[in-house]
Amino acid sequence: MFIKNCWYVAAWDTEVPADGFLTRTITGVPVVLWRDSTGKIVAFEDRCCHRGAPLSKGRREGDCLRCMYHGLKFDRSGTCVEIPSQKTIPPQARVRSFPVVETHRWVWIWMGDAAAADTALVPDTHWLNDPAWRSNDGYIHYDVGYLLIADNLLDFSHLPYVHPTTLGGSEDYAKVVPKVERTARGVKVTRWTIDTEAPGFIQKVRPFAGRVDRWNIYDFVMPGVLLMDSGMALTGTGAPDGNRIDAAEFRGCQALTPETENSTHYFFAHPHNFLIDRPDVTTSIHQSVVTAFAEDREMIMAQQTSLSQDGGFKMVNLGIDSALTQFRWMVSRQIEEESKHAAAA
Is 44 in the same domain as 105? Predict the structure, then answer.
């Protein structure tokens, strides 16, 4: 089961063409995304109400979409406005439409009660198109449920072991106990590693002459959006006190969107605010992140295979699991509350 009353990332803005369609399954629902005559994105369930044909096999006609099986035409709201074979249009002749917000390079979709879709709840990812920051677009498809990936993102003690030559750095990073705080919409994790080695990915493009103080401070918003302030500065220059002198800073934006119970869309970017006039630096940082996330994917897929071999296996929780334990509890609680509300309705 999934949280429905929330904003999920459905796509990068460039994925939805001016003409044509983008299809994507989200929380088990097939969705077709398209742009009307003004360029505004519309999202329908990708299934005609007549005989269930995919609307993505149809065509756009102005601000309408026509099913190319029997010709039913639907306006932006999903209401059928024309049936070629008859003049009368039944009131139930409509397809489900979803609230959509296109902002800061991401297309957000609300899969639950449309009346509850509050645009103020869309997470802020302005770094993705802020002229003071640079990044490249990333996407990975996982054949794993999103919560296993969330576990990985909520515990960075794995960095030195899974990513020793990319994002990891020295093993003293894993010894740090992060500060975990529960928020109204998820958890906040703060991790400082003082006087440590700079990780390999930064030394490639912006090398530090000595050891650094490194931080990863991020909000993990239910059900799967990570917004991170991270970076490093030379040890002793005051970064822990807020003096980020000559620092290398990043604003990680990552989103997990459930495709099905056993598959996930993973959108990501790692904006940086230094050497922004050097596309080669942005490319190098992005490739390091891509390589590291491929390392994550290999480990998580192997974990999934291992878990599937023993349905009775019980994980042993450690102190480092505080963030992911709290987050999973919050997700379960919201799913339960939504289920109770739906049952009552």
Answer: yes
The total of structural domains in the chain comes to 2
Polymer length in residues for the chain: 345
Residue 1 maps to a domain: no
Alpha helix (H) residue ranges in 218-321: 279-308
- Tell me which residue of 30, 26, 36 sits closest to 55, measured CA to CA: 30
| Nearest Cα to Cα of residue 294 among 135, 142, 137, 106 | 142
pLDDT in tens, 122-170: 999 999 999 999 999 999 999 999 999 999 999 988 888 888 777 776 6
Cα gap 267→50, rounded to integer Å: 34
H-helix or E-strand spanning residue 35? strand 29-35
User: Tens digit of pLDDT for each residue in 304-334?
Assistant: 999 999 888 898 888 888 999 999 999 999 9
56's CB contacts (< 8 A; 6+ apart) are 21, 23, 32, 46
User: pTM value?
Assistant: 0.94
